[in-house]
From TrEMBL:
Residues 201-231, 290-312 are annotated as: Disordered. Residues 217-231 have a biased composition (Basic and acidic residues). InterPro entries: Calcineurin-like_PHP, Metallo-depent_PP-like. It comes from Dendrothele bispora (strain CBS 962.96). One of its GO terms (molecular function) is hydrolase activity. This is Metallo-dependent phosphatase. Residues 204-213, 295-306 have a biased composition (Pro residues). It holds the Pfam family Metallophos. Coiled coil: none annotated. Residues 71-358 form the Calcineurin-like phosphoesterase domain. It comes from the Eukaryota.
Length: 428
């Protein structure tokens, strides 16, 4: 039963460790061993190891240990099935036996398609709002996305609405009202986006900080504008350096994108990411919810987008847009791996996570884990440990990323990458 459950409702489990230190002797047993123990607990494996800082030359004088951890859990399509959703979130450690937020995750990401194909639409969206409030009270964050099925229902395309689900609303009119101006429609407008960018390091800003940075136009200013005001000029130059670091620095792409369908390499509105996409989503949803609700299809004709929808809004809902795109799942390996780096570069990310296209046998990880498709019925853990050492004015991070698929009876590591990152991250 558990295996069948996990084949229906996927989950991604990610754990990020940022252990900041300045001297080798300060990060011996008390810091490194607890991290190893936590990784072993999360991954259920004795194969997990951390590169100790003893292999890096120590050039610093003062030291301060500042551990930083980030736990992320992402879950794909839920499709109206509360019992299975509850089991998956319990399995992932997001909620307890009562369905309440545990505080074990810093971020919980749901990639859309909560609605359709099941009867628990009202219950699931209410539960997501409950978890959002509980997470906020403990310093956690819930990132929610609208999938293509939420958009279909907002348009009036009800092809996947079960009669039994409709009964939970009471009537067609009651359901239309709840999805437009009612409780569910209101939370869609306030709390759900089309895409997310989740940085893995605090220097890159909070979730959905746009990439590239939106103040890059300042770089075009002429320093002569400041005349003899040296303080203003120095502040301005420092600001430029910070913006440049956020756009092209060593950690600039240390982030993950989340979207329901996929980020097509030919989609024209990738930048700034995810700001442009989410602005289009906000404007289109507003038009759909504020128009007179058309009689649903079927049995009535397909209503389509509102007449005043812009070309960019049509592209958002197009097969090549982030709600419907399936190229990362269906293209051959050579094409996918040829295209993926340019999309990651444009979005300021290292990996992209999406649902939408199910694989009922395995998690789909392509191009060395740069593409991860979670609508597969399994959960996987993403681990990242970084050790920081001061080297003059620079800092050196030994970063390890482990991507694993976790089944009830086993774990499969599908990517294990290690890299060295050098930069000046102080003061972030």
């Amino acid at each position: 039963m558990i295996r069948s459950l996990l084949l229906l409702v996927p989950a991604v489990y990610a754990v990020y460790y940022f252990n900041i230190h300045a001297q080798v002797q300060d990060v011996a047993t008390p810091v490194i061993l607890p991290l190893v123990n936590q990784l072993v607990r999360y991954f259920q494996s004795e194969e997990i190891s951390i590169s100790t800082p003893a292999t890096i030359a120590d050039t610093s004088v003062n030291s301060e240990v500042k551990p930083f951890t980030r736990h992320i859990v992402a879950v794909g399509d839920l499709h109206g099935d509360f019992p299975n959703a509850l089991r998956v979130l319990q399995f992932s450690g997001v909620v307890d036996e009562k369905g309440d937020w545990t505080g074990d995750a810093d971020f919980f990401v749901q990639t859309g398609d909560i609605i359709d194909r099941g009867d628990d639409t009202i219950k699931l969206f209410a539960w997501m709002d409950q978890l959002r409030a509980q997470a906020t009270s403990t310093g956690g964050v819930v990132l929610s996305h609208l999938g293509n099925h939420e958009w279909m229902n907002a348009i009036g395309d009800w092809r996947y609405v079960y009669p039994t689900e409709l009964k939970t609303f009471g009537s067609v009119q009651a359901r239309q009202k709840m999805l437009s101006s009612g409780v569910i429609g209101s939370t869609w407008a306030a709390n759900y986006t089309v895409a997310s960018r989740l940085p893995l390091h605090p220097s890159l800003g909070p979730p959905n900080t746009p990439y590239p940075p939106q103040h890059s136009l300042h770089l075009e200013k002429d320093s002569s504008e400041f005349g003899s005001d040296q303080d203003r000029l120095e502040d301005y130059e420092t600001s430029h350096l910070k913006e440049h670091e956020l756009e092209t620095g060593a950690l600039s792409h240390s982030a993950i994108s989340f979207v329901h369908g996929g980020l097509s390499p030919t989609y024209p509105n990738l930048q700034p990411f995810p700001t442009k996409i989410n602005e289009l989503g906000t404007s289109l949803l507003r038009k759909l919810q504020r128009r007179e609700q058309p009689p649903p299809h079927p049995p009535n004709p397909y209503p389509g987008l509102p007449p005043d929808s812009t070309r960019e809004e049509h592209l958002l809902y197009d097969a090549n847009g982030p709600l419907w795109y399936r190229g990362w799942a269906l293209d051959d390996e050579e094409k996918a791996c040829k295209d993926v780096d340019e999309v990651l570069k444009k979005t300021g990310t290292r990996r992209m996570v999406m649902g939408h296209t199910p694989n009922f046998h395995n998690i789909v990880s392509r191009c060395d884990g740069k593409i991860i498709i979670i609508d597969t019925g399994i959960s996987h853990a993403y681990g990242d440990s970084e050790n920081l050492e001061n080297v003059g004015k620079k800092q050196r991070w030994t970063e390890r990323e482990v991507i694993s698929a976790i089944y009830p009876d086993r774990q499969e590591i599908i990517a294990d990458d290690e890299r060295e990152v050098i930069g000046d991250f102080r003061g972030h």
